[in-house]
Amino acid sequence: MAGIYIHIPFCEKRCFYCDFYSTTDKTLTDSYIDAVVKELSLRIGEISGEDVTTIYIGGGTPSQLSIHQLNCLVSGLKSIINFNTIAEFTIEVNPDDVYFEYMKECRSLGINRVSMGIQSFVDSELVEINRRHNASQAREAVSVIRQAGFRNISIDLIYGLPLQTQETWLYSLEEAIKLDVPHISCYNLSYEEGTVLYKRKEKGEIVECSEDDCVKMYETLVAKMIEAGYVHYEISNFAKPGQYSRHNSSYWNLTPYIGLGASAHSFDGTVRRYNPMSIKEYIKGVNSKGFAYAEESETIWERYNEYVMINLRTMWGIKTEQIRLMFGKELYTHFKSEYRRFVDSGEMRIVDGAITITEKGIMLSDYIIRNLMYIP
User: Fold this and answer.
1) 336 lies in a domain?
2) For residue 269, what pLDDT is reported?
3) Which H, E and C letters describe 129-183, residue by residue?
4) Average pLDDT over every residue of 209-217
5) Using CA atoms, how far apart are residues 303 and 322, in angstroms rounded to an integer?
6) Facing residues of 89 across strands?
7) In this prediction, what percent of the chain has a pLDDT beyond 90?
8) CATH assignment of the domain containing 120
9) In the structure, what pLDDT confidence band is assigned to residue 251 with cuts at 50, 70 and 90?
C-alpha cells in the first residue's frame, strides 16, 4: 500500500495566514505539470511492489488548473500507475473555482473525493484573511459538487480568526453541520512568521485570539461535532462513521508515499525526501537529472518520535506491542515508563492494548506527546 501527493502551488491570490509554498505567477503551469508526470515516471521505483491506493492533489489551489491541464496531469498519472487499485483520489478546490462542468470533469477522471477550504461562514472574517469567496458561494459550491456526482466531500474551517467570537464560531459550525458533508477538518489559526497575518499582528493591526478563547472554541467544536454524529478520529478531524480520510490516515501509519512537485515531501519507510520550494529549481532538477529532492535518512528514534507524535493525535492511539516490534526494547521500555503517569491522571487510557489521549488530556496533548518522545 502506498500513496501519492501532488503539490499544485498556483493561486489566484494568497490567503493572509498561509505559509504553504504557493505563487500567483502561472506562466510555468504547463511546464510544471510535465515535470510532475516525468518525476513520477522516474521515481515510481521508490514504492516498487506497493499498490498505490490513494492520490491527493493539494496546494496551493489545484482548482486553478484548467480542465485541459487537469486532464494532462491525470492522463500522465494513468500512464504510469495502475488506477484499479486507487481507493481514494482527492482534489482540493476553492469555492469560487467550483462550477458544474469542472466538477463533472474531475469525476470523469476518476477523482472521487473533494476537499474544500471554507474556513468561515462569516463574510467579514473571510475578508480579514483575504479569502476569495463568501459564505453564499461556499454553500453553493457544496451543492454543485454534489450535483456533479460527488458524495465524499470534506470541508475545512479555522478557529481563532481575527474578529472571530465565540458566537460567530458557533454560527460557522452550525452552518457547516447543516451541509451534512461526511468529513470536516477544523484547525486553530497559526500565525506563521513571514505571512501577512503575522506581520499585521506584529504591527498591532490585529489582535491574536487568546489561548483561553481558543480552548473554548475547541471545546465547542468537539461537543457540536459529536452531537451531530461525527466521529472525532483525529485532533483536528471529524468524520461520519467510516468516512475517514484514507490518504491522511496513511501518513499516520507511516505508509510509504511519493510527493511530487515543488516543496513536496516523500517517505519510503526510512528515507525522507524534500523537493525545493521553487518552481524553476524543481523543473530544472527533474529535467536535468530526473529528480529535484534532497534527502535524509532518519534514525530509529526520529522515526519513533514521529510515530508517537502522529498516532497519539488519533482515536486509535498506539499499541504498545507495535512500539516493541517497530522500534525495539529500549524505546518500548521508555514508552511504557512514560505513559503510566498520564493514565493514572486520567489524561490517557488503555483500551484493548492501545494507548490513547482522553478528552480530558486533549488540551495537554502537546505536553503529553513531548514527554513520550525520546531524546537520545
Assistant:
1) yes
2) 81
3) CCCCCCHHHHHHHHHHHHHCCCCEEEEEEEECCCCCCHHHHHHHHHHHHHCCCCE
4) 95
5) 13
6) 55
7) 92
8) 3.20.20.70
9) confident
Residue 7 bridge partners (DSSP)? 58
- Burial environment of residue 342 by CB neighbours within 10 A (0 to 12, 13 to 18, 19 or more): buried
In a domain, 271, yes or no: no
**The total number of structural domains that make up the chain:** 2
Residue at 312 is within a domain = yes
**DSSP secondary-structure letter at 106?**
H
Q: 74 with 190, same domain?
A: yes
CB atoms within 10 A of CB 59: 24
What number of helices (H) and strands (E) belong to the chain?
14, 15
Separation of alpha carbons 346 and 116, rounded Å: 36
Residue 21: other Cβ atoms inside 10 A: 19
224 in any annotated domain: yes
Q: Is the pLDDT of residue 165 over 90?
A: yes
Decide if 206 contacts 343 (C-beta within 8 A).
no
Domain boundary among 251, 278, 311: 251
**CA 357 to chain centroid:** 21
Residue 131 has pLDDT above 80, yes or no: yes
pTM: 0.95
Q: Record the cell numbers describing residue 67, joined without a space.
A: 480542465
Residue 353, Cβ neighbours under 10 Å: how many? 11
Q: What is the mean pLDDT of residues 165-176?
A: 98
> Using CA of residue 360, residue 321, residue 353, residue 340, what is the dihedral sign?
negative
Q: What is the CATH number of the domain that holds 364?
A: 1.10.10
Measure the CA–CA gap between 98 and 249, rounded to whole angstroms. Answer: 26
8 A C-beta contact, residue 19 and residue 201 = no
Tell me: do 337 and 198 sit in the same domain: no
Q: Using omega within 30 degrees of 0 as the cis cutoff, is the peptide bond preceding 60 cis?
A: yes
* Domain of residue 355, residue span: 300-372
